[in-house]
Amino acid sequence: MDGDIEHADTESHGKRRRWPVVLLTLVAVVSTGCLVMVLGTSGPGVGHFRTPAGRQAYIEAYDAAFAALPKPTETHDVETTFGTVRAYAWINPNPVDEVPIVLVPGRASGVPMWGENLRDFVEHRTVYAFDAIGDSGLSEQTLPLRGMDDNARWVEEALDGLELDRVHLVGHSQGGGLAAAVAVRYPDRLASLTLLEPIMTFGMLPVWAIGWSAVAALPFLPDSWRDHALNRIGGVEDDEVDPDDPMARMIAARTTHFDSGSLPTPSRLTDDQMRALPMPVYVAIASDKSLAGGEDAAKKAELLPHAIVKVWPKTTHSLPMQVASELDAELERFWADVR
Q1: Domains of the chain, with CATH numbers?
Q2: Which residue has the higher pLDDT, 194 or 20?
Q3: pTM of the full structure
């Protein structure tokens, strides 16, 4: 578990599964923060729906996407300094151990993004999942997040509110960057850390993603051109788009109706920060169109003293959904080894 990069050899990745390609593309674009860099912002703000009708449209789409998940055993609205965090719990009455999993989603995707993974996770363990403060979902932001200290703090306060002392923290994309920030600031909370394509954590955004994001952000472009730019970022072909998928409709509603203010961009971990992390870490990097930095990010992650680093072939930024069963089995073995 000490800093070796592995390259997965499973053969099942080559067959593309039916899933919302809009999820591949929009989450990839929005999670980079490139649109914020292109368009500029007026400073930290509070995430909000632009209209009541837009909020209702989003909630209907969210509910449809959420219906595909296993039914949670508990629903919590946890008060924090920065607003109310919507958290769901799947309580396993006979878990393999007492340390729960806590899931932090990528930008614009919320708890429903874990639909491909949850059934495997809850088979063995108790699982909690958050909608992120400041992003779409059913959490409600009341104060701006002025940096990654604030962003990590709401996670810590949510864990407090749920009375979770130690957890296996899992984050994807921007949620991976947030999970890494929590690990740096509150290491005693974490039994382990899992980073799935974490952006801005081990390297900078790739130039090609910034370029295509700039194209996608141009307001005068025809929708077909913008969709093409988004698909290039997602690493998919235009004819693979499935706009009727519930997750796709949810994320499309988010991009239409929600203003995220200006969420903090994850910070690149310094060498000293990486070497100081005491917990076991699992890092999954995509081989194709990685927004985490690809092979360079994997090599950088070798500085983590207690890490498994794996580059998954034939995957893109939506790696957790693309290789769900294989990844879930590997993570269960990883968590089982944590003492």
Answers
A1: 4-336 (3.40.50.1820)
A2: 194
A3: 0.86
